[in-house]
Amino acid sequence: MSQDTPEFLLERHPNPVTPAERERLLQDPGFGRIFTDHMATVRYSADRGWHDARIGARADLSLNPSTLVLHYAQEIFEGLKAYRLPDGSATLFRPEANARRFRNSAARLAMAELPEDLFVASVEQLVRLERDWIPSADGASLYLRPFMIATEVALGTKPSTDYLYAVIASPVGAYFKGGGSAVTIWVSDNYTRAAPGGTGAAKCGGNYAASLQAQAEGAREGCDQVVFLDAVERRWVEELGGMNVFFVFADGSLQTPPLTGTILPGITRDSLITLARDLGMTVREEPYSIDQWQADAQSGKLAEAFACGTAAVVTPIGQVKGRKHGFTIGSGGAGEVTLRLKAALQDIQRGRSDDKHGWLHKVA
Ligand code: PLP
Ligand code: COI
């Protein structure tokens, strides 16, 4: 396949959702419940390389029971969003960054590395076709889920020789039920998500499987998300199950845990560091302990905290609970700096302010 202009063969869905039904579905999409008509796929085999790039009807996958992914979990994914701009056009936010992270995840999982231009072309061409599925309500968007699985039929533990890459699309509203209101998070002091030398910095399904027991424990305690501590000292705050975390101090400075290999390098995290610095704020990428977090929240040194990610956007953290911890941050609601950064990010994503870093990738 040519690597210069990756073109996907298009086979339209014979019975797509009607426009009236689509409009009804888009009224209240929730998160990850509704899917568009089409999907993009590309195949890889050791002898042919990347081939058979196509966009066709979204359909079930049929897998032999001894397909490698079902046994040894060679699976990676991405998450990015397409937005509708005020002029009706559609844009992706930093898809090149997702393409790079996808390649890094593949390398860590010993999978074939999808060329970045092929990744970008797959989401671009799927969004162009499905543009009517992009909700226009503020806070809503079309969530893209590129993923890749090992498809060789074998039972030996070894890197697969064959892969299926696919992209599905889902119109979404807010990730948390309360919309943009503050969430309560659970400190997991017994389960960890990632260890040094492990797969924490890769976006692989196994990391999420490892987080679900902790997430369920938090849910039983009335929490919305779980925050993980480092696996060595069980002391340093790393990230949430599906989001990075930022701390905002009373002196106006910001801090976020450094990327030491056990944390997912979030694209929202990276964008917010840039935007905060643009606004003249000091941002430190330094470790922060859970005990210090509690002490600073109680003394008032810490004013705000928030979670961030593609799905969560910027979500204020109001309360933290755990077996050994329990504290409220600021007033327990959304802080001023949190809201300012959220607005700065969303104004760029929605085309309401100057895209001075060139983050928007117009598609249609
Ligand atoms: N951390 C984890 C574990 C995640 O799943 C995500 C979501 O993708 C993030 C952080 C935030 O990454 P991004 O901002 O690129 O969506
Ligand atoms: C995303 O934000 O895109 C993620 O993959 C996180 C997940 C919790 C939905």
Q: How does this model look, in words?
A:
This protein is an alpha+beta fold and 364 residues long. It has 2 domains: 9-172, Aminotransferase class 4, branched-chain amino acid transferase, N-terminal domain (D-amino Acid Aminotransferase, Chain A, domain 1), CATH 3.30.470.10; 183-350, D-amino Acid Aminotransferase, subunit A, domain 2 (D-amino Acid Aminotransferase, Chain A, domain 2). 26% of the residues lie in helices and 28% in strands. It has helices spanning 19-27, 69-72, 95-108, 116-129, 205-220, 267-278, 290-299, 336-349, and strands at residues 9-10, 38-45, 49-57, 75-77, 80-84, 90-93, 141-150, 162-172, 183-188, 225-229, 237-240, 244-249, 254-256, 283-285, 302-309, 313-321, 326-328, 360-362. Strands 1, 2, 3, 4, 5, 6, 7, 8 and 18 form a 9-stranded mixed β-sheet that branches. Strands 9, 10, 11, 12, 13, 14, 15, 16 and 17 form a 9-stranded mixed β-sheet that branches. The longest helix has 16 residues, at 205-220. It is globular. The two termini are 24 Å apart. The mean pLDDT is 96. The chain binds pyridoxal-5'-phosphate and 2-OXO-4-methylpentanoic acid. 2-OXO-4-methylpentanoic acid binds at residues 79, 242, 309-311. It comes from Bordetella genomosp. 12.
